[in-house]
Amino acid sequence: MKERLLDWLRCPICSSDLSIKDASTASDGEIETGRLVCSEGHAFPIDAGVPSLLRESELRGGNSAERSASAEISESFSEEWNEFNPELRTWHETVEDRQALFLQEVACTKDELAGKVVFDAGCGNGSHSNGISGLGCDVVAMDVSESVYAAARHYRKHGTGRTHFLRGDLSSVPLKEHSMDVVYSSGVLHHNPSTLEALKSIAATIAAPGRIYIWLYHMEPGSQFWLQLKLRAFLSVFPMNVRKSFVKVWCVQSMARQHLRTLLRRNDEKDRLTWQERLIDLYDIYTPAYRWMHTQEEVGTWYRDLGLEGIETTEVRDWGFGMVGLRPAKK
Fold first, then answer.
1. On the CB side of 149, how many CA atoms lie within 13 Å of its CA?
2. Torsion angles phi and psi, residue 148, rounded to 5
3. What are the residue ranges spanned by the domains of the chain?
4. Cα 209 to Cα 67, 179, 314, 324, distances in angstroms
5. In CATH terms, is domain 54-331 a member of 3.40.50.150?
6. Integer Cα distance of 222 and 96 in angstroms
7. Residues 159 and 138: beta-carbon distance below 8 Å
């Protein structure tokens, strides 16, 4: 991690500032190992250049019935992103595609973004976070899963140098209030026990002026969506290794159907995925513990209750939608 990350971090337990102890620094100035410690004595490890601001008891404590939501979410998405190769497309799109889409989603230009700080809440494999930083801003990229370690390792060599990875939980975001110019969370909040509570947690970090964008699932018409819901309900009672095995078997028939559509010329380039790309899609559908669906009206109400203005739906797809809201400057 770069020492600059301290400008934005806070203790997720007591909200006080953090300092670095017992640091080991590499020749490029990156802090490889050490601890982040607050004035109340709470300590968090820095490992492989990534600070982990999680409550360790949530991830390790007790039997399966006692494990926290963050532990199950971490397990699910760690398994998902372990399948990712940085050379693959993420969600069927190139980095350039996603950069252009990001500017559309958050409703600002590249010039407006330059020099700003973006919080990517739920960064997954980190490819999109690094792509956003290529637009001239710093990106604080956080995920609850172990994916941040591989992401930090890869983009330290192949990235922009402006992406700051950390491990943290959306239920207790370890960032200072009003410290982020843009808060961005695409396809993440609905994988938490409460989408609204996760939204409130990340919204506390929006600067004034600043903006937030979230992308969520909505209900889809058709028998395929109904089948997915039934399969998810069935699989949810099984441990992760069983769900993972099912998805790999299911991926075989999914790839076979894709090849048939390609032979019949009934699909486009975005439907011609590699095995790993298709597998990650299916993991996202069937393995998460939570996968809520919402409406634009519902999210608009949430935004207004949070005091946001300029509320606009900037993206709609078959399976979900994204909305931006603005926090006005202080008067």
1. 12
2. -65, -25
3. 1-49, 54-331
4. 38, 11, 19, 13
5. yes
6. 32
7. no
Distances (CA, A) of 218 to 149, 287, 316: 31, 18, 10
* 8 Å CB contact between 44 and 52: yes
The single residue listed with the structure tokens 């110019």 is: 181
Whole-structure pTM value: 0.86
Q: Are 43 and 18 in contact (CB under 8 A)?
A: no
Separation between Cα atoms, residue 133 and residue 117, nearest integer Å: 9
DSSP-derived secondary structure for 84-147: --TTSPBTTB-HHHHHHHHHHHHT--HHHHTT-EEEEES-TTSHHHHHHHTTSSEEEEEESSTH
By C-alpha distance, which of 52, 302, 310 is closest to 197?
Answer: 302
Instruction: Output the six-digit token pair for 168.
Output: 């943290």
pLDDT in tens, 148-206: 999 999 999 888 999 999 999 998 999 999 999 999 999 999 999 999 999 999 999 99
pLDDT surpassing 60 at residue 87: no
